[in-house]
């Protein structure tokens, strides 16, 4: 494994291997000395072309706990406006001797493109509406800790699918691990061509959240619920009439919470719009795993950096 | 210099010798002191005419100039190109148009005919000085805001009406900007959904084509649809032509062969506007070109400097090279198209649409000697570094294309000899 | 890595310890540990992955049988502390599990199958430093085959096995390999 650009790059056993490593890394978080020497002498650059305090911090801590030198480069206010190409921007940074490049970019495909230009290992920390593989890994890892194996489990993903890289990575990761996935959104927030896509990839779609949560109709009982953030800027794009109407149709409200068994974990990648896609009662419920996702995220990112950067950089994972 | 072209197959049919005098006109006997070109096994076509070329000069001479674009055109078998107006400054005045025309004459390799902007600064609001551009030495006949759609129906209506006065034509970039966000960069479909790329639905093109043919009917003017890319647009055009509406349409070589699947690797080389579409659309476009619903092939040759393409996909510039490879692509995409049909869609009809009286003429005595000699059986593997263009955004790199341009003659002057600039 | 191999005895292999020899060696080490430590109080046995882990458990069981009380046992993975980490493809790490009382102020006994270059033990000492502060660290190995590259020695040795550098010492344990045996080839 040279880069982590898409969940699609990972074989099932590689995902499970990352989970095993993540479990070890998880233990490190409870130690007094939160430090492993595995990446001593390695340099990791967090290159964020888009603000994201939580993902950037997570990668930064993950790298530091593995003893890597971590440098944050805020590349926001894209170089396009300065007349510099993306290629020039990343080559300039990588010329400083970078082993790992963690990249967040508002454009889909940017991480893949960058990986073709640089020698460093590239980790996609979110590219536009395309993918966010470490988020999907941490979500699946968190759910696996609660549900045991994901094989045959039913996970509902709810929200703005069109603009969500979290959805795109998660649907691949969860189905890869044997979960059955139902995605729920109003038609205007379903990606174009989701019909043939879902048929080929083997997941279900629905416009009716209540039916899915009740396990009514053709749906099975839900074993886990994953809420997606609704971006504020979508409010003006005629995707739905009003926040109120969105909440009534697709929010995890107090009433809908009561439809769920008390051991069904509720995920949200954050930051949450409380009162919009998720009610406070749901966000703070005992079955909410939102904070656990954060610590899982650290463990997963440590595992990813370890697998990419600890060994001989010319080789792969043994 | 006078020419004797020996043994060329006219439009792929009868084999004959062609004679060109010192004035660059076909004559019926060998002139004295003529250079002999051996055209044994080669097909002779009237020089190709491109309704849609971006030469980037003035403004982006690092990407292409009128001279380098003319060279590329000659290598592609062209003897005339229509230089699109979206330069910096925009070709929206008589002076700007005349300057382009003059630079084309100085280059002297093809006829460079400026296209005028429909609206001032391509802003879509006020009409540019259409009549003055027409009256200028450049004699502008074709007007287009290409790169942008003349979206305001009122403005489009007035433009169509106004150019009737002098027989001009509006070439429309059909794309409703409200049906796709400003970040739209590819065909909207299953692949764009998976890739997370904001897309243009085919309907964004089709609604404008439908509106414009109705406006053409209403105004009694003619409209030209640039780079048709969807099966739905073809349906509208077929209907409109059946109704007798005065509409013509062009298709690009890339829309005849390349499909949207190429975007899976996010390579901005394949980012183009209108976007590459699925195979069903490609099939419909080929059929429409063969049956005459689409009148012409136009390259939309769009050079870009490397640094304008080396961005994230959504940030990279739109467009691809195409003028050197157009004939090979058409032969590859439509191998059953007869040579006389090739001449029709790549020379005769485009010349008529553009109002270029001395282009696309028969290869017969008394007509100007614009011609291209093609090896029909050769195949060429495209090498982007071998291009005469200043740019390298070549989607055909590494592909094998059928047929090869061997010689090009512009007004009796050999511009390309044995596949190289003369 | 120490030259331990999972493959079974092959032609030319010479058995140097059989199952009974191994059991006797571990019994002796158990008694030595108790004697040296004056009982099992504050003793923590940490097995090094892979075969040190079952060896530590066996020694713990033997001590418990003698003392009549359980003895703290855990496992230690040193993958991330190895000095050859980056000269080969990334290896998957194993679990590190300390007993509930931790290792602070305890006598930690590192248990491994073969002592060879000493580099694994060097890594283990580094790992221990990140985990806590034992009052003492001792080393118990089933086989010491010599060829040290670092100033490290074992406190308790099952068998000293002089070997040529090119020879391969293979430890097989029932928990991992299905049977107990030490061979040299």
From TrEMBL, chain A:
The gene is pyrB. InterPro entries: Asp/Orn_carbamoyltranf_P-bd, Asp/Orn_carbamoylTrfase, Asp/Orn_carbamoylTrfase_sf, Asp_carbamoyltransf, Asp_carbamoyltransf_Asp/Orn-bd. NCBIfam families: asp_carb_tr, PRK00856.1. Belongs to the aspartate/ornithine carbamoyltransferase superfamily. ATCase family. It is an enzyme of class 2 (transferase). L-aspartate binds at residues 82, 165, 229. One of its GO terms (biological process) is 'de novo' UMP biosynthetic process. Residues 152-308 form the Aspartate/ornithine carbamoyltransferase Asp/Orn-binding domain. Its EC number is 2.1.3.2. Carbamoyl phosphate binds at residues 54-55, 104, 132, 135, 270-271. Heterododecamer (2C3:3R2) of six catalytic PyrB chains organized as two trimers (C3), and six regulatory PyrI chains organized as three dimers (R2). It comes from the Bacteria. The keyword ATP-binding does not apply. Pfam families: OTCace, OTCace_N. This is Aspartate carbamoyltransferase. GO terms for molecular function: amino acid binding; aspartate carbamoyltransferase activity. Pathway: Pyrimidine metabolism; UMP biosynthesis via de novo pathway; (S)-dihydroorotate from bicarbonate: step 2/3.
TrEMBL record, chain B:
Catalyzes the reversible cyclization of carbamoyl aspartate to dihydroorotate. It catalyses: (S)-dihydroorotate + H2O = N-carbamoyl-L-aspartate + H(+). It comes from Nocardioides cavernae. Binds 2 Zn(2+) ions per subunit. GO terms for biological process: 'de novo' UMP biosynthetic process; purine nucleobase catabolic process. CDD domains: DHOase_IIa. Residues 43-231 form the Dihydroorotase catalytic domain. The keyword Hydrolase applies. GO terms for cellular component: cytoplasm. GO terms for molecular function: allantoinase activity; dihydroorotase activity; zinc ion binding. Its cofactor is Zn(2+). Coiled coil: none annotated. This is Dihydroorotase. PANTHER family: ALLANTOINASE. Residues 276-414 form the Amidohydrolase-related domain. The keyword Zinc applies. Belongs to the metallo-dependent hydrolases superfamily. DHOase family. Class I DHOase subfamily. Pathway: Pyrimidine metabolism; UMP biosynthesis via de novo pathway; (S)-dihydroorotate from bicarbonate: step 3/3.
UniProtKB/TrEMBL annotation, chain C:
Residues 16-156 form the Phosphoribosyltransferase domain. InterPro entries: PRTase-like, PRTase_dom, PyrR, PyrR_bifunctional. Its EC number is 2.4.2.9. Pfam families: Pribosyltran. One of its GO terms (molecular function) is uracil phosphoribosyltransferase activity. A motif (PRPP-binding) lies at residues 108-120. It catalyses: UMP + diphosphate = 5-phospho-alpha-D-ribose 1-diphosphate + uracil. Keywords: Glycosyltransferase, Transcription, Transcription regulation, Transferase. One of its GO terms (biological process) is regulation of DNA-templated transcription. The keyword NADP does not apply. PANTHER family: BIFUNCTIONAL PROTEIN PYRR. Regulates the transcription of the pyrimidine nucleotide (pyr) operon in response to exogenous pyrimidines. Belongs to the purine/pyrimidine phosphoribosyltransferase family. PyrR subfamily. This is Bifunctional protein PyrR. The gene is pyrR.
């Amino acid at each position: 494994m040279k880069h982590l650009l898409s969940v699609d790059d990972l074989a099932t056993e590689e995902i499970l291997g990352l989970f095993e490593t993540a479990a070890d890394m998880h233990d490190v978080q409870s130690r007094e000395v939160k430090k492993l020497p595995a990446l001593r002498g390695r340099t990791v650059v967090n290159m964020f072309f888009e603000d994201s305090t939580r993902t950037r911090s997570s990668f930064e801590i993950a790298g530091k706990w593995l003893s890597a030198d971590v440098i944050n480069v805020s590349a926001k206010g894209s170089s396009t406006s300065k007349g510099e190409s993306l290629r020039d921007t990343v080559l300039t940074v990588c010329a400083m001797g970078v082993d790992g490049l963690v990249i967040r970019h508002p454009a889909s495909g940017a991480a893949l493109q960058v990986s073709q230009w640089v020698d460093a290992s590239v980790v996609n920390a979110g590219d536009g509406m395309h993918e966010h593989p470490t988020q999907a890994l941490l979500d699946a890892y968190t759910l696996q800790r609660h549900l045991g194996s994901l094989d045959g489990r039913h996970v509902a993903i709810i929200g703005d699918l069109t603009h969500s890289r979290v959805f795109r990575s998660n649907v691949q990761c969860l189905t890869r691990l044997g979960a059955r996935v139902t995605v729920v959104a109003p038609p205007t927030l379903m990606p174009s061509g989701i019909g043939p896509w879902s048929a080929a990839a083997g997941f279900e779609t629905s416009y009716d959240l209540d039916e899915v949560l009740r396990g009514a109709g053709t749906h099975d009982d839900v074993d886990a619920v994953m809420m997606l953030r609704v971006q504020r800027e979508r409010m003006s794009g005629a995707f739905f009439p009003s926040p109120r109407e969105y909440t009534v149709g697709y929010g995890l409200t107090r009433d809908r919470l009561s439809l769920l068994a008390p051991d069904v974990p509720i995920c949200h990648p954050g930051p949450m719009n409380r009162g919009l896609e998720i009610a406070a009662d749901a966000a703070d419920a005992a079955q909410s795993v939102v904070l656990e996702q954060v610590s899982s995220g650290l463990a997963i990112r440590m595992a990813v950096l370890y697998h990419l950067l600890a060994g001989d950089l010319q080789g792969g994972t043994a | 210099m006078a020419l004797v072209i020996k043994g060329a197959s006219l439009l792929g049919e009868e084999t004959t010798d062609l004679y060109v005098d010192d004035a660059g006109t076909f004559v019926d006997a060998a002139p004295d002191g003529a250079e002999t070109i051996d055209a044994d096994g080669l097909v002779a076509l009237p020089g190709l005419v491109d309704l849609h070329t971006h030469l980037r000069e003035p403004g982006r001479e690092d990407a292409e100039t009128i001279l380098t674009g003319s060279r590329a055109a000659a290598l592609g078998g062209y003897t005339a190109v229509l230089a699109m107006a979206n330069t910096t400054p925009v070709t929206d005045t008589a002076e700007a148009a005349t300057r382009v025309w003059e630079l084309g004459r100085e280059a002297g390799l093809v006829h460079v005919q400026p296209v005028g902007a429909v609206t001032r600064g391509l802003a879509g609001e006020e009409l540019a000085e259409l009549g003055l551009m027409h009256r200028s030495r450049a004699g502008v006949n074709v007007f287009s805001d290409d790169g942008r759609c003349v979206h305001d129906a009122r403005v489009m209506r007035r433009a169509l009406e106004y150019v009737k006065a002098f027989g001009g034509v509006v070439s429309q970039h059909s794309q409703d900007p409200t049906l796709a966000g400003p970040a739209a960069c590819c065909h909207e479909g299953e692949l764009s959904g998976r890739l997370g790329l904001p897309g243009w639905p085919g309907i964004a093109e089709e609604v404008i084509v439908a509106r414009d043919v109705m406006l053409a009917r209403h105004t009694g003017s003619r409209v030209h649809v640039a780079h048709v890319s969807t099966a739905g647009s073809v349906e509208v055009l077929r209907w409109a032509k059946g109704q007798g509406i005065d509409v013509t349409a062009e298709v690009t070589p890339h829309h005849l062969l390349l499909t949207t699947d190429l975007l899976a690797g996010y390579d901005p080389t394949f980012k183009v506007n209108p976007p590459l579409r699925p195979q069903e659309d490609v099939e419909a476009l080929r059929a429409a070109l063969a049956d005459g619903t689409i009148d012409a092939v136009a390259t939309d040759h769009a050079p870009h400097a490397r640094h304008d393409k080396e961005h994230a996909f959504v940030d990279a510039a739109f467009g691809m090279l195409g003028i050197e490879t157009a004939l090979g692509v058409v032969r590859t995409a439509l191998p059953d198209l007869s040579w006389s049909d090739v001449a029709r869609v790549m020379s005769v009809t485009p010349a008529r649409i553009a109002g270029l009286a001395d282009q696309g003429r028969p290869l017969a005595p008394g007509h100007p000697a614009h011609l291209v000699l093609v090896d029909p059986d050769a195949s060429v593997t495209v090498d982007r570094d071998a291009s005469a263009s200043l740019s390298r955004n070549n989607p055909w790199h590494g592909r094998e294309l059928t047929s090869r341009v061997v010689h090009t003659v512009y007004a009796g002057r050999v511009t390309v000899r044995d596949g190289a600039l003369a | 890595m120490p030259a331990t191999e999972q493959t079974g005895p092959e032609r030319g292999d010479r058995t140097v310890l059989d199952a009974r020899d191994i059991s006797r060696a571990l019994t002796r080490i158990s008694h030595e540990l108790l004697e040296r430590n004056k009982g099992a109080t504050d003793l923590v046995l940490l097995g090094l992955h892979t075969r040190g882990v079952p060896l530590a458990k066996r020694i713990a069981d033997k001590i418990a049988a003698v003392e009549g009380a359980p003895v703290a046992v855990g496992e230690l993975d040193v993958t991330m502390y190895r000095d050859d980490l980056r000269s080969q493809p990334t290896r998957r790490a194993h679990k590190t599990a300390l007993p509930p009382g931790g290792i602070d102020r305890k006598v930690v006994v590192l248990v491994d199958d073969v002592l060879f270059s000493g580099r694994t033990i060097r890594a283990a000492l580094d790992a221990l430093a990140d985990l806590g502060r034992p009052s003492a660290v001792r080393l118990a190995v089933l086989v010491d085959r010599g060829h040290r590259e670092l100033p490290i020695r074992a406190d308790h040795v099952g068998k000293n096995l002089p070997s040529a550098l090119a020879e391969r010492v293979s430890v097989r344990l029932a928990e991992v390999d299905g049977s107990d045996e030490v061979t040299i080839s």
